[in-house]
Amino acid sequence: MFKLSGRRALICAVLPIGLLAAGCSSFGGMGSEGYHEVVAGNWPAAKADFEQDYRSAPNHPIAQFNMGTAYHHSGEVNTADRMFSEAVMSGRTYYPSKSLEPEGVSATVSRHACTRLHRDNKLDTNCGDQIAMELPPAPPPALVAQAAPEPAPAVEAQATAPAPKQDRN
Question: What is the pLDDT of residues 96-110, one digit of tens each?
C-alpha cells in the first residue's frame, strides 16, 4: 500500500474539497436562482429572486436586465424598457455566464438589453441608434378643432317653361 506523510495526506484530503467548493460556487451568483426558476417556468418565484438581487445590487447589469425581463413578462413594458436602458449603460463590458437570450453568452448584457429595446420598437442613444440622436423629442400632438361642415352649395333655379320665340321681322 501507499505510505503518505501527514502533509501529503492533508493535501489529498483538502484539495478535492476545495475544488468541489470552488466548482459549486460557480453555479451561484447574481441572477442564478431566478435563472433556474425561469427555466422551470416559475416566473413569480423568478421575479421574487430578481427583486432580491436588484435590492442588494441595484447597479449590477444582471440585476437590472433580469428585472427588465420580469417586468416585461408581467406586461409592464414601459417599466421593463427603463430597466433595459439602465442595463445598456452598466453592462457595456459585462458578459453573462448564462443566458436565455438569442445571442447567448457571446454578447454583453448591454447588447442583450439593446436587442430587447429594439424588439419593443424603442430607440436608445446608448445602443448606437443614430436616429434617436438626430430626432428631437416629438412634441405632444396639437388639439385640432373640428369645423362645422359647410352647407351644400345652392342649386340655381331653372326655368320650367320655354321662353317665347321672338320674330326677327
Answer: 988 888 888 888 998
Give the whole-angstrom CA distance, residue 137 versus residue 124.
12
Distances (CA, A) of 78 to 34, 75, 117, 120, 121: 21, 9, 10, 9, 11
Q: Which residue has the cell 437590472?
A: 64
Q: What is the pLDDT of residues 130-142, one digit of tens each?
A: 555 555 555 666 6
Residue with more model confidence, 163 or 68: 68
List the domains of the chain with CATH numbers.
Answer: 30-132 (1.25.40.10)
Q: Which stretches of 91-129 are DSSP H helices?
A: 109-119
pTM (predicted TM-score) = 0.61
- Report the amino acid identity of residue 123: L
Say how many C-beta atoms besides its own lie within 10 A of residue 5's C-beta: 8
DSSP string, 13-55: HHHHHHHHHHHHHTT-STTHHHHHHHHHT-HHHHHHHHHHHHH
Rounded (10°) angle between helices 77-90 and 109-119: 150
Sign of the Cα pseudo-torsion (41, 47, 53, 54, in order): positive
